C-alpha cells in the first residue's frame, strides 16, 4: 500500500469530513472545527494511491514551544498499516526543522488502538488527567488578577496539585509544564487569578457563551478553587465549568463534593510526550548544475539574477 503525506488546505475539507465520518462517526466533533484547524493549525493528510484521504492529524504550538498533536483519524480499511506513524513522522520532521523540542498528545485510557499506535511511535506516558464538568454558581467572586513575582513562582514550585500532574497543567486544550517561563507567559496574557493562597488560570476569553468556562488549578485548596471557578463562570455568563484535574482519587473526590462530574470524554486522559532532537542543518555552499547553467544563460536557467554570485559572494 502506497500513500503520501502533505499539508491539507480548505480544498480537502469535504474529503476530511468523509474521513472523520467513516473513522469515528457522523457526530465526530472534529468536523465542526475543520475549517479553523486547517486555517490556524497545520493539518496533514495522508493520501492513498487513488488520491483518497485515508488519514489525517493536526499539529499546533503549545505555549512553551513544544507542539501538540491531535485529531488523528485513519480510515478503518487502512488501519495498522502505518498511516498514523507516517503522519507522526511528518510532524517530527516539521518539529525538528523548526526547533520544537517535543511533540505531545493525549488519548483516552480506553482507546487501545490509539495507545498502541502512539506508544508504537515512541510516545511515553507522562501523567493522567481527568476532565470534570460542573454547573456555574452565583455568589461574590473572590479572586483577582495576579501578576508575576517570585512568590508566585515559589507557590507553583511547591504546589501539591502541580506535583500530582507530574509537573504539568492543562492549558488551552494542551498540557504544558508548570515552569517559570510558562507561568510568566500566562501572567502576561492576564490569565492568572489568586486570593488567599489559592491560584488558578482561566482560559483565554472567547465570545461563545455556549462554551463551558475552562480553568486550571495551580495551587491552594482544591475545594475553594473549584467553588470559586463556578462563581467566576456565572460572572461571565457561562452555565458550565470544566477543568482537567490530575487523575488522583482525593482530587476527584473533592471535585465530586463541589458538584463536578466526570465529563463525557476525557475521563482518564493519558498524556504522552515524544522528545524531538533538533536538526543541525548545514548551509549548502556549492551551486547545483541547474544554477550554473542559469548563470551562463544555457539549458534550463531559472532566471535567477544572483546566480553564481549567490554561492561565491
Ligand atoms: C488511532 C488511529 C489513528 C491509529 O491509526 P493507524 O494508522 O492504524 O496506526 P498505525 O498503523 O500508524 O500504528 C502504528 C503502530 O501502532 C501499533 N498499533 C496500531 N493499532 C494497533 C492495534 N489495534 N493493536 C496493536 N497495535 C496497534 C502498531 O505497533 C503499529 O505498527 P505495526 O502495525 O507495524 O505493529 C486509528 O486507530 C483511528 O483512526 N482510530 C479512531 C480515531 C481515534 O481514536 N483517534 C485517536 C484519538 S487520540
Structure, described:
With 313 residues, the protein is α+β, with helices and mostly antiparallel strands. It folds into two domains: 3-100, Gcn5-related N-acetyltransferase (GNAT) (Aminopeptidase, 3-Layer(aba) Sandwich), CATH 3.40.630.30; 129-270, Aminopeptidase (3-Layer(aba) Sandwich). 33% of the residues lie in helices and 29% in strands. It has helices at 13-23, 30-40, 83-97, 112-120, 150-157, 160-164, 180-188, 222-235, 249-257, 289-296, 308-312; strands at residues 3-7, 42-48, 53-61, 67-74, 102-108, 124-135, 144-145, 168-171, 174-177, 192-195, 198-202, 213-219, 240-246, 261-262, 269-275. The longest helix is centred in the first third of the chain and has 15 residues, at 83-97. It is globular. It starts with a strand and ends with a helix. The model is unreliable at 299-303 and 307-313 (pLDDT under 50). The site of coenzyme A (COA) has 20 residues, from strand 4, helix 3 and helix 4.
Q: Would you state the CATH class of the largest domain?
A: Alpha Beta
Low-confidence stretches: 299-303, 307-313
Number of H/I helices: 11
Rg computed from alpha carbons, rounded to a whole number of angstroms? 23 Å
The average pLDDT score comes to 92
The geometry reads as globular
SSE ordering: EHHEEEHEHEEHHEEHEEEHEHEEHH
What ions, cofactors and ligands are bound? coenzyme A
For the record, give the distance between the C-alpha atoms at the N and C termini, rounded to a whole number.
Answer: 47 Å
Full CATH superfamily name of the largest domain: Gcn5-related N-acetyltransferase (GNAT)
Structural domain count: 2
Q: Strand content of the residues, in percent?
A: 25-35%
Number of strands: 15
What structural class should be given to the helix and strand makeup? Answer: alpha+beta
Can you give the helix content as a percent range?
25-40%
CATH fold-level label of the largest domain: Aminopeptidase
| Major sheet | 13 strands, mixed
Overall CATH architecture of the largest domain: 3-Layer(aba) Sandwich
